[in-house]
Amino acid sequence: MSKTILIVGGGLAGTIVANGLCRQLGTQLRSGAVSITMLGTCDTHMYQPGLLYVPFGRMREHEMFREQSRVLDRRINFFVDPAKAIDAEKKQVTTDSGRTFRYDYLVLATGSRIMPQSVPGMQEGAHWFYDLEGARKLRDALNAFQGGKIVVNINAPHKCPVAPVEFTLMLHEFLEAKGLRDKSEITYTYPIGRLHSLEPVAHWAGPVFEQLGIKSEVFFNTEKVDPQAKTITSMEGSELPYDLLVTIPPHEGASVISESGLGKGGWVPTNTKTLHREGSDDIFVVGDTTNIPISKAGSTAHFEADVLIDNLASLVQEGRWAREYDGKAFCFIETGFSTGTYVWFNYKTPPTVAPPSQMLHWFKLAYNRLYWLSARGLL
């Protein structure tokens, strides 16, 4: 009897899973023993890490987009029809158009979304680079900036956890190049008692910020933004004035997850090793959608996807499990416009930060170009 694999979400994680399954299940796809269907929200695929470079004019918008149908293997049944309701008991997904898709195996790759509207005044008073519109507006604001107080405000949870550090260091060099650094004050806020959730990154960033004259304030959980007074206030009672506010807005998972009763805040309770939705043996979770307490980053999604591909293919072909996910994550960190570093870790190995170098910066730029091979599952 034919098996149907249904993938909800067309971002990096879902795309790698779909393409990887096509490679491993070629025989079954040709015979009709397996079919793979993806439900996406739009017909384009965006390289999200490229948004970091847009405000500084370091990446052109056209470089960040491809038609999703061209990124996907042609054997995948792809529909631009967002999931509206997921019924785990009936093993079916209903879409915005009213269509119903049944499945034998379901892959939830619904990702995350920014929620600036969840903080009073943030949407009106702040800039961000976590979506294209925000990155464009921030680019314009930086080009018009002539000096003053800049607050880089980080909220949790958020994806791409090293991006705020990267942005802050790139901002420092951007202002230097424009001759505005000595006319500007940069203050970086973080919601816990150190500069980053990963302790080694925090210990590395502290001395770097100090050397560059970047101020910081920890235990800063944003309560509100006042666009008229140009102040940002924390729940701890601190108030910071700004001339330019750059925020990393809090994130939530997809609304279809919470509305379907699959996870609070859009995050699905996920087995840290098997990537099953807790309590299910036919629903897998990958990428930002999981509630696994590790970085919500592209590399995490990629490593999870690789494990999921092996396991789903093994279940279909051999009726057995292949391997477990070990928590692996690897993130390049831009430390300016000409140097970079990286951090990697897994469930057993704590994070380490490599010494910054020009070579690592070029590795990051090279990966920017190789992303599309990664999305196709070829890297």
Automatic annotation (TrEMBL):
Gene3D superfamilies: FAD/NAD(P)-binding domain (3.50.50.60). InterPro entries: FAD/NAD-bd_sf, FAD/NAD-binding_dom, SQRD. Coiled coil: none annotated. Signal peptide: none annotated. Residues 4-148 form the FAD/NAD(P)-binding domain. It comes from the Bacteria. PANTHER family: FAD-DEPENDENT PYRIDINE NUCLEOTIDE-DISULPHIDE OXIDOREDUCTASE, PTHR43755. This is NAD(P)/FAD-dependent oxidoreductase. It comes from Magnetospirillum sulfuroxidans.
